[in-house]
Amino acid sequence: MSRDALEVRGRARALLEIDLDAVVANWRMLRDCARPAEVAAVVKADAYGLGAEPVARALWDAGCRRLFVARLEEGIALRRLLPEADILVLDGVGRGESEAFLAGRLVPVLNHPGELALWRQVARRVERRLPCALHVDTGMTRLGFTAAELEAAAAEGMAELRPLLVMSHLACADEPDHPLNAEQLARFRSLARVLPEVPRSLAASSGIFLGEAYRFDLCRPGVALYGVNPTPDRPNPMQPVVRLTAPILRVFALEEAASVGYGATYRAPAGARIATVPVGYADGLLRSLSGRGVARINGIPVPYAGRVSMDLIGLDVSRVPERLLAPGTEVELIGGPDGVDELARLAGTIGYELLTRLGRRLCRRYRREGMRRP
Ligand SMILES: *Cc1c(COP(=O)(O)O)cnc(C)c1O
Question: The whole model's pTM is what?
Fold first, then answer.
């Protein structure tokens, strides 16, 4: 929905502010930290819900030349935006997709021998060496060649292909003491030796913070770019990127005790004040936040009162001075350095899920200092 449409309605709405300068600052911080390794950007799932186009554009302008998406469709859309970027598709290539990969100059991350065979066939047909990345499994058992599959592939040679990367993915990088990290590192080193000439990539956001040994030639951060803490047991080294606010619609000053919301799960005592705010689970405030979430008015914490509805939530604002409770007053639903992580924890999930669920109908406003384009 455009700003104009909102202004015509003449009423404040929920607003998702996305700080592209902070995304860029986060990317630069990781780049400086990981040097001499290169740092790509993962912009799958619409840049974790924040908008792949503006995010990728800002990162490209800052000097990021390599981007990862999950789906072919995401790669095609990104190619229209960035004609010169290296775009890698984590899903790999399936039957019937090779023309789209070629037309979009997209690089498939080959995840199993069937995909490798398919991509070899395509290369023979077009009579040129085709770029690809090879994903190897080192202990997550999700995607990637096994050791035996990789050796068989290497034995056939890579004459038709131009492997840009051999990569793997860590299952427990956000738990630095987890023994699987070192095991995966050792397996990755040993597997990558099968293709000694090919650059290597293991670390995503959290992996970068496991130390230099994990960084190899290329790092692939996603969530840290968007301000989520990649080191959950330490203070967040990233800058916050998102802020979600919404105006108070109305306030009930209860003369008698009353229940609030569906299911009458919350009983507010006489004298309580309940504010209604126009955001709900259709906007990404998960229903599991019912009775658990906390918002802020002028910095004062206000707990969710009762169940989250599709379009609305109730807040117990009894602690907030009445002069701060006029309709239209701004309520901060996500904000501050750990806003996403904190709300995700209260919802019983992780920052990744909270971000990717932020609703499409939220008005998104991008901050980019010195932005020349509209
Ligand atoms: C999603 C993904 C990433 C990015 O992970 P973050 O934890 O968000 O940094 C990197 N590599 C692969 C293979 C992924 O699937």
Answer: 0.95
